[in-house]
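Worked Example 4.2. Read the sequence first, then its structure tokens.
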Amino acid sequence: MLKHLAAAMAVIAIVSPAFAQEAALARGKIIDATTGKPVPGATVFNKDTGESAITDDGGNFEFLTSEGPANLVVIDPSYKKTEARYDGKSAVTITLEPVSVRGEEIVVEAERERTTAGETTMRREEIARIPGSRGDALSAVKNLPGVANTQGFGPNAGLVIRGSSPADSRIFVDGFEIPILYHLGGIQSVLPTEMIDDLVYTPGAFGVELGRASAGTIQVASRRGARELAGFAEVSFINAATMLQGPLGKKGSFAFAARRSYIDALIPLVVSDDSLSFTALPRYYDYQARFDYELTKHLRLSAFLFGSDDVFAVETNEQDPDEPSRFKNTTRFTRAIAAVTYDRPGVYNKLAVSALTQRVGFELGDDRFLRINPDSFAARDDARIQLTKHVALIAGGEAEAREVGVRVKLPRPPKEGDPTEPNLTNDPLIDVDSTESGEHLAAWTAIELQPTSRIKTTAGVRVDNFRRNDVTVVQPRVQARLKIDKAMSVLAAGGLYTRPPDNQDENLQTSLKPERAWQTSLGLENKIGQGITMTTTIYYNDRSHLITAAGARDEPMREDGTNTYSNDGTGRSYGAELLLQARSDKFFGWAAYTYARSERQDNEMAAERLFDSDQTHNLVILGSYKFGEDDKWQIGGRFQLTSGTPYTPVIGAVFNSDINNYSAEFGRINSQRNPAQHQVDIRIDRAFTFKDWKLSGYLDVANVYLNAPTLGYEYNRNYTERTETKGIPILPSLGLRGEF
């Protein structure tokens, strides 16, 4: 890999004199079209190359870009998106038209240049209107190539990227990991779309700045508050939400938001204790607060606090001695981030610190439980320096200290590929009460070369040190982009990526090493016409050190944990992805197709098999159209067709007299598939604009024709009959929002 990196850099160094262009300082001023006053805090970027800047208190901006004319785009939450032509010589003045209602959501996502094949940015305006996603940003990501369509419960439910386990991918908010992705296993993400300014999805082969992920990443940037007072209140079938944002003195801003579900209040109104054998009372809430302050033209402070709290409990009325009568899952976290950012033409540096507290509880009956309490403090620094006209240095580092308390009294949970369910009565228990501490250190550096506007490459290395096991991993990575012409570009990327073991696995087997993946991808991006773009990507990932079960679950755990888990697994993932996007003033939509294959071998003696999350085919077609007076109506639809997930078939059963029950006999692991799944979602929006405020209503229905997916099978006592376990058949959401 290092030999190939050196060769690529040498070739670029040879050809660069022939293509070299001069750099220039693009500068200008942004003003309000109605008042003539400067607009501070607006984002200005070069639509062709991606360089950007934020206007100061006087509305001024400047940034280095290629010499010559450029197409500039200006974005601010309180104004309409504006494009202007910069002649490459004189300072430009750009006027912005205010939106009709303060706080209205406009496009806030810069159309940045992709750095790796498959990378996709999403617009907040479009996220809020995608059918079936209920306006939720991290649910909308599931419509992109490489993301599997899944239903299930867990902290990372649904985020299966290129066939990998959900634990292989990471979601970063302002540079720090978010520990829980969804409320109640997938109903809603823990971060509302209104608090998101920027979302970048990268299915693989990302840069050196990110780590601890062996599959893909999602980078979320929280949203700064507007400089004018604005807000909204919303009610829907699922929850109630509110947000307030506005100025903080002359140089600052604030934003507050909160949501609370009321499913727990609705269920007792429609379900009596006698009508069902159990009563479920799930509930969640989340909260966010952000503050920003401009110290100088180039120096700003920011702070972001967010968290969530989920409870899901089931009390059964039936008396079954073999089944627990009570189930409860509690998940809560709070993360605080503070950052200072220095940003001027040619120099960027962001220093941030963060504290995280998290509580996870899982209870079955009165004496079976899992409690994990990870707390951590982290710091990271990101820097970028433009060394010359054609060379930039990227560097940074991060450090995290954590303490994890684990209390477990449960049978060992099934691992990847294990079809058997734990026997709560007869399986040996893992009985652990421990508190472990550890540190994670990382540093990275990369050189970005752009000898011409057509060639751009970034080559670097990331070093991660997991101090608990004293494991250091050196990870070379490279990304390259070649513009063939104005409409077509080729992208290539590759490198080594690692992720550490989960907390609970590491506490049982302290000698576990990080999992590894060598990733490569090649893509073609083609602008077919006005507002139409097609991207195709092929990829191959070679995996090693995969964590797998080291012994039978009914075998008592040794003191050193060596018969629990090991790093003996290997695997590979490969596939192709296609994304066809279309955008205009009234319409947006895309068609996304993924062919993916994920295979693994648990040890040298085991047969090769599919990953549990393998989904060979996934097709998504969606679109949304504005119409009527002032585009106050919007209607959209979505169709999805996917392969079923694999499962291990039951081929027989044996009666076990010791436990007076039957034990299943299984066929080849993951050798059969659940039925293919297809569904249609619709969404209708209607806006009513008044003098000083706006009222909007929406109807969002997922799976309109009630085609519930098959998630698995339940068997009778002797395994002679089975019934399908179904997912949610339909999920309607009707909501009203008032904005000012």
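Now turn to a second chain, presented in exactly the same format:
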Amino acid sequence: FYSPPLICQLPEEMGPCRAYMPRWFYNKQTGRCEHFFYGGCGGNSNNFKTLKECEHRCVLPGEAHDKVQCQKTV
């Protein structure tokens, strides 16, 4: 059973300011990093500038991307 770090369990938090900064947060309900807009101040530590950074901190290795089945045989 994987439990992400505590910062990854914090809720999405835009903060009180009104900037419109694209960021990523870990959604503990879905187990994925998801896009949101950060206001530029306040908020919490579950706030990453890139998807890669969010996945590195919060997602179990090997589970970061959807698994797809290959349709072509070799």
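Notes for the reader: The CA atoms of residues 25 and 47 lie 5 Å apart. The longest helix spans residues 51-58.
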